[in-house]
Amino acid sequence: MSADLLPVLPDDIFKLVFEKSPGSLLVKGDAPRFTIVAASDTYLDVTSSTREAIVGKGFFEAFPEDKTLSDDTNARIIFTRVVNTRQKIDVPAYRFDVFNTDTKTYTERHWSCSNTPIFDGDNNVAYILNTVVDITDEVRAREASTENENRLLLATEAAAMATWDLGLLDNSFVCSPRLAEIFGFSADTTVVRENLQTQIDADDMKNIVVPAYHKALLTGTYVYEVKIHLPDDSLRWIKTQGIVVYDDKKEPVRMLGTVIDITDTKRDEIRKNDFIAMASHELKTPLTSIKAYIQILTKRLIPVNDSFVNTTLMKAGNQVTKMTDLIHSFLDLSRLESGKLQLKLDVFNMNELVAETIAETQLLSPGHPIEFEPGRQLFVKADAEKIGQVIGNLLSNALKYSDKDSTITVTCTIENNNVKVLVTDNGIGIKAKDQEKLFQRFYRVESDKMKNISGFGIGLYLSSEIIQRHRGTIGVQSEEGRGATFYFTLPAATGI
Ligand code: ADP
């Protein structure tokens, strides 16, 4: 290295800096020999060589040429090109296994290198600075991410799942070929989101997709199940699930998700619903007769005044009422799932309905104190029978999940133009983690206390669906072991 190349640094300082630099080698431009002039410590380390062994030798004397390498990575071809073209040549990635002299084994390593020409006074390539960077970690990370992507691809393919990516700012839409198949086209068809949307059942679009989209923008989670019409006029059910991606300012920018065909599951559900509806319907008639017989017997036996007979008949009557309620719930469940739950809207006084429902429910558990002070009239426009069912459900749960001598308090108030009904018990309470799931279909808390209390886990699900269909809210506040307050609100009727 002549001093005029680096006039500011004395040769020995330059040598030191060079030797300490990461992965550098300086060769002369004396093709085809390419005499090694200097090598850094790291370079020697990586190549398991010593300065004495390689400096002064031709590059290919020191490091035998690997003829299996491609033109893009073969050092002889690259050095020659640098000399001929006088251009810097980068090799972004290549593999060169490092020999470990202690273990006598090779370790796989990946490198990237650049070959920079250094010119003499006549503008000829006097030297080539070969700088090598170890990129093994990056390569491994890239491989791992490709592997993850492949695994994800395999999983989505195995699950016959379509994936999609929607840009919320520019409305861009990218999806996997499976989406076209789900919508009834061949996998290679290019689909347009707007066209796919026209295949979604019009009612489902209005009642399910649009609300789900708005909810997603607020909650970050997009999920819905809808019917779609295929080009051959057949019907298919799909389930879409997605998440919203936000930018630094917490603005929604993208939605990513999956679509699966759930037609078979839906058909099973429909069959199951039809069966439940049919069985419940058939059970209703004999139960109504049993109830009537019990009432006749009760009336006939009043003069006998046998307390055992009276109590037994009352218990039998209560059991029939419970069974009738259960069957009604099953009927409602099947109506709800098949979209046939109709609301009969009337204006009524909520306080009156609460008082009536308490009187009916109290019969199921006489002696269990229920406190209620009806205040002024609070009118709502709703389906009185269905709302009565909701109140009855909250009350019977309060009775079921608290001690017989603990008081249940019912309150009815008005809050921000909403009529609010609260049912508070001092029973077993509910853990925070269970509270949000209580309103899901068939959800029951699993605990020792619950083992001996029967139930199906549909009461709160139905209550929540009924209240939501009235544009109201339902919820719970509770702590385990410290009772619970279940409440619901309904918009107050205006113009009364
Ligand atoms: P069921 O009572 O038939 O199991 P519900 O849908 O009415 O079904 O209630 C779902 C679950 O919520 C119950 O299984 C119970 O674990 C819990 N739960 C409901 N009400 C109460 C309450 N007042 N106190 C404690 N747990 C309750």
What does the secondary structure layout of this molecule look like, with pairings?
Layout: H1 11-20, E1 24-28, E2 36-39, H2 41-46, H3 51-54, H4 59-62, H5 75-85, E3 89-95, E4 98-100, E5 105-107, E6 110-119, E7 125-134, H6 136-158, E8 162-167, E9 173-175, H7 177-182, H8 193-199, H9 202-219, E10 221-229, E11 235-246, E12 252-261, H10 263-301, H11 307-337, E13 346-349, H12 350-362, E14 370-372, E15 379-382, H13 384-400, E16 408-415, E17 418-425, H14 432-435, H15 459-469, E18 473-478, E19 484-491
Parallel strand pairs: 14-16
Antiparallel strand pairs: 1-2, 1-7, 3-6, 4-5, 6-7, 8-9, 8-12, 10-11, 11-12, 13-15, 16-17, 17-19, 18-19
- Give the C-alpha Rg: 39 Å
CATH topology of the largest domain: Heat Shock Protein 90
Q: Indicate the percent of residues in helices.
A: 40-55%
- The CATH architecture of the largest domain can be named as 2-Layer Sandwich
What is the CATH superfamily of the largest domain?
Histidine kinase-like ATPase, C-terminal domain
- Count structural domains: 4
Average pLDDT, rounded to a whole number, is: 89
Supply the CATH class of the largest domain.
Alpha Beta
| Proportion of residues in β-strands | 15-25%
Q: Would you identify the regions where 5 or more consecutive residues have pLDDT less than 50?
A: none
**Strand segment count:** 19
Give the spatial strand order of the biggest sheet. Answer: 2-1-7-6-3
Estimate the global geometry from the Cα principal axes.
elongated
Broad structural category: alpha+beta
> Biggest β-sheet: count, sense, barrel?
5 strands, antiparallel
Distinct ligand kinds: adenosine-5'-diphosphate
